[in-house]
Amino acid sequence: VRGRPNRRFASQHLSSATTLDCHISTMVRVFYEPPPYGPRTNLNKTRWGVRGGGLVGVKNLEMLSKMNPNIAIGVPVVAAIGLAFFLQGVVFRKDLPFSMEPEYQAAQRAYMRYHNMNPIFGISSKKARAMDPDA
User: How far is residue 43 from each of residues 24, 81, 126, measured CA to CA in Å?
Assistant: First the structure.
């Protein structure tokens, strides 16, 4: 019959449990202790908190460890991308290389035509020669 305990099994289980060990179950009281340095801190730290801190410092490192991960990672990444664009646009700005000048490219096209490079679809084809203003 469904839902009823098996009396024979229960009696065998209880008799074997009482003969082997008189303590069937013991209640244990557990006290919850919050993490020692507040929420969002790990338990694998030293007893006195964070050691070192490097260039950031101990207080700032603890603040960063408790911060929202999206902000703690996203803001430095966006700042690094902004710094890279600034440096590329202002500090490292140089003129284009000499191979990008129109005269150099015209000479390169003439050289390729003279040596019949890419004769089917490339620079030496009839269609490309017809469209080239330098020819």
Answer: 34, 34, 75
